[in-house]
Each structure stands twice: as structure tokens, then as C-alpha cells.
Design brief:
two-stranded antiparallel sheet, binds zinc ion, 4 helices, Lysozyme-like, alpha/beta, 6-stranded mixed sheet, single chain
């Protein structure tokens, strides 16, 4: 796995329309870890791809009626089996963090890479996911000089009181 033209090579690409320009393309300096499952606790279905492409069907599940109109995305999703999907090239701004603050800087989407793990805050993530996550982080570190291991954070840390992902089920030691 490497990065060419801001896309991971050998990774499935599904282009999301939910992105725009970063205010400063050279400022990619934070990695934000999230989790997602649709519906909650159910894995290995197309609903995350659908959500990020504005194609989620509100009739497929009661919860989807609440979220199908959201315009959201992440750069990367790492599925339970460790396979990865990329939705937005890294030089563009994906819409994953919302109102957020990292060490005094607001609007973290401007300067971060958003990585979603398929999962929940209580079910342990898989070894395959940790292994892919490490590989993706290493690729990012090699490509974007302003990123560093010290600036990898959770959504809950940049949006406290509003967000709780990736949750206690995420073992930070595994990506140290
Ligand atoms: Zn999140």
C-alpha cells in the first residue's frame, strides 16, 4: 500500500460527493479516528458506502430516517475484515469531524484525515483492522510531512460532550 495522487493504491475507491477544498492543502496535520456501523452493531453491509454517497435508503431501517439526509464522509473506512475503502482524496476536506477543537484549533476537518473503523464503542475491533490501520497511518506519515504519531486523536477528544467514538473498545496501545 502506498499513496499516489492522494489516493491509497490497491484499495477500493468509492467517490463521495461530500467533500470540498481544504483552506490550506499543505496543512494535513492530524489523524482523527472514528467508528461507525449501520445500523448500530451490524457489520458487512453496503450502508456506510450508501451514507457517504447520499444514497442511504430511509426505508431500510428506522434509524436511517434520522440520518439519510446528512452530508458526511470520511477519507477512509476500515472494515471488520481489514479491507479498506477510500471515499475522498487526502488533499481534499472530508466531512467527518463537525464542530471540533484540537489543541485550540477549531474546524478539524480543515487539517485532518478522517479514518472510520467499522465497529461500535463496545465491541472490540478486529486484529485485521488494527493491522490495516497501522499500515494506513504509516503510509500517511511517509506522504504528509506535517503528520506525526503524536497527532492522532479520537473523535471524542476533539468533540467532547458531543461525540464518544471510537470508544473504550479502541485500544490506543495497538497503534503506538
Ligand atoms: Zn466520529
Amino acid at each position: 500500500m502506498t499513496i499516489e495522487q492522494h489516493w491509497l493504491t490497491n484499495v477500493k475507491r468509492i467517490s463521495s460527493p461530500n467533500y470540498d477544498e481544504r483552506p490550506d492543502q499543505t496543512d494535513i496535520s492530524l489523524v482523527v479516528i472514528h467508528c461507525i456501523s449501520l445500523p448500530q452493531g451490524e457489520f458487512c453491509n453496503p450502508h456506510i458506502d450508501e451514507l457517504f454517497c447520499n444514497q442511504l435508503n430511509p426505508d431500510d431501517h428506522p434509524y436511517f430516517k434520522e440520518i439519510y439526509q446528512l452530508k458526511v464522509s470520511a477519507h477512509i473506512l476500515i472494515k471488520r475484515d481489514g479491507n479498506c475503502v477510500q471515499y475522498v482524496p487526502f488533499n481534499k476536506r472530508a466531512w467527518h469531524a463537525g464542530k471540533s477543537n484540537y489543541q485550540g484549533r477549531e474546524r478539524c476537518n480543515d487539517f485532518s484525515v478522517g479514518i472510520e473503523l467499522e465497529g461500535t464503542e463496545s465491541i472490540p475491533y478486529t486484529q485485521a483492522q488494527y493491522s490495516t490501520l497501522k499500515e494506513v497511518i504509516n503510509c500517511l506519515l511517509q506522504t504528509y510531512p506535517n503528520l506525526s504519531k503524536q497527532h492522532i486523536t479520537g473523535h471524542s477528544d476533539i468533540a467532547p460532550g458531543r461525540k464518544t467514538d471510537p470508544g473504550a473498545s479502541f485500544d490506543w496501545q495497538k497503534i503506538k
